[in-house]
Amino acid sequence: MNGAHDMGGAHGFGPVQPEPNEPVFHAEWERRAFAITVAMGATREWNIDMSRFARENRSPTDYLSKSYYELWLSGLEQLATQRGLVSADEIAAGHARGKPRPVQRVLTAQDVDRVLSRGTAVARVPTAPARFKAGDRVRAKNLHPSAHTRLPRYVRGHVGTVERVHGCHVFPDSNATGTGENPQWLYAVGFDGRELWGPQGDPKLKVSVDAWEPYLEPA
Amino acid sequence: MSTEHTGNPHGHAHAHGSELSETELRVRALETILTEKGYVDPLALDRLVETYETKVGPRNGARVVARAWSSPEYLDWLRKDATAAIASMGFAGRQSEHMIALENTPKIHNMVVCTLCSCYPWAVLGLPPVWYKSAPYRSRAVADPRGVLHEFGVKLPEETEIRVWDSTAEVRYLVVPMRPAGTDGWSEEKLATLVTRDSMIGTGLPKSPRDVS
């Protein structure tokens, strides 16, 4: 979706403000929002692409008015409610009212280290040869899907060069909608600064994005 | 639950310590419901927080960089299969399943961003700082990286090429900064003290040997 989350090249947000000696979390509620989000991911009721879409799929005003972990909280509330794990009544009451339904897995304390260190690999065995190779000139398609996508607006329509072939990876546009992993070849595609930003672009800049094959066409 | 302030521009500060913000109440409600229904284990939640507050952080990445500076064989492995080379040091998994190491050279400076959300190599750098997830960084890193670097106090020669890597997939990037001069004969352990978090994102440079005694 063309949402406020797709920020590359936007103006007006001001300078970057690094915080010296920044703590990992800035409040107890951030710790809890982080932990319940990661723990609920382990239930396999949704995947990472669904989580990302739940956070970004809101009005620009809403997205930009929330802090990072407020977006995580809103995304989690939405997914848990949509899946019927939690009801709006329960959220209002602050307590469970109905009976739980079974989930695939509940993350236990003993499992945390193992689950985190294993991660969730998304590389898959390819079923077709890669269409592009390193050095190929490609154009990012001018696509504007209303659902989840990982092709940022600032590269759409622009021509770049394939720099790396990463392999065949789960395709977020499909995975986010629950229509399957639909693995696709993934490439690092480099774009010159002036191709993206015109004559104002830095002549010594190159920007790479990781783009799945359906995002690309030969140029 | 503590009532400390959020430290972010959208947090809701309160005059009375006993009063919880709307956000704090919502988090507490959700955690309570999920726990009561048995979907989450409170001990697992504590363990998750403890892991990223005390165990997994940029010291991991610093050890990887220090080894790459010390061992040509390790650097070569990092170039060919960063995921395996990094996993060999015990750093693997969540948000680092597919790693690529980016070497800075006198001609090329690498910098990493996620313009769409907050993708970041957790196993080597821990959880991302607020600025990395913020609109100013996400909007400008790809269009005006030199301006962003300036805000970090980094000024590169004009002729240095800047390579920005937007983490739009599940591939995670770790910048390997250039080894500072004057460190001949240093142990890996000592070298690691020069490697800052920002130098592995590309918004900073390693410390100088003068900075660590």
Q: State the end-to-end distance of chain B.
A: 41 Å
As for the number of domains of chain B, it is 2
Helix content of chain B: 40-55%
- Unreliable spans of chain B are 1-15
Q: With helices defined by DSSP (H or I, 4 residues minimum), what is the helix count of chain B?
A: 11
- What's the N-to-C terminus distance of chain A? 25 Å
- DSSP, total strands of chain B: 4
- Supply the CATH superfamily name of the largest domain in chain B: Nitrile hydratase alpha /Thiocyanate hydrolase gamma
- Class by alpha and beta content of chain B: alpha/beta
Question: How much of the polypeptide of chain B forms β-strand, as a percent range?
Answer: 5-15%
* Biggest sheet architecture of chain B: 2 strands, parallel
**Can you tell me the CATH architecture of the largest domain in chain A?**
Roll
> Any guess at the CATH architecture of the largest domain in chain B?
Alpha-Beta Complex
The class by helix and strand makeup of chain A works out as: alpha+beta
Query: What is the CA-based Rg of chain B, rounded?
Result: 20 Å
What is the C-alpha radius of gyration of chain A, as a whole number of Å?
A: 20 Å
CATH topological fold name of the largest domain in chain A? SH3 type barrels
Largest interface: A-B, 98 and 93 residues
The largest sheet of chain A is: 6 strands, antiparallel
What features would you describe in this structure?
The complex is a heterodimer of chains A (219) and B (213). Chain A has 219 residues and is α+β, with helices and mostly antiparallel strands. Chain A is 30% helix and 17% strand. Chain A is built from eight helices and six strands; from the N terminus they run H-H-H-H-H-H-E-E-E-H-E-H-E-E. The radius of gyration of chain A is 20 Å and the shape is globular. Chain B has two domains: 24-54, no CATH class; 57-211, Nitrile hydratase alpha /Thiocyanate hydrolase gamma (Nitrile Hydratase, Chain A, Alpha-Beta Complex), CATH 3.90.330. Chain B is 41% helix and 11% strand. Chain B has helices spanning 22-36, 42-55, 58-70, 72-80, 82-87, 122-125, 130-133, 135-140, 145-151, 188-192, 197-201; strands at residues 98-103, 108-113, 161-166, 171-176. In chain B, the strands form two sheets. A two-stranded parallel ribbon of chain B has the order 1-4. In chain B, strands 2-3 form a two-stranded parallel sheet. The longest helix of chain B is centred in the first third of the chain and has 15 residues, at 22-36. Mean pLDDT of chain B is 92; it is low at 1-15. The chains are: A alpha+beta (219), B alpha/beta (213). Strand 5 of chain A pairs parallel with strand 3 (161-166) of chain B, so a sheet runs across the interface.
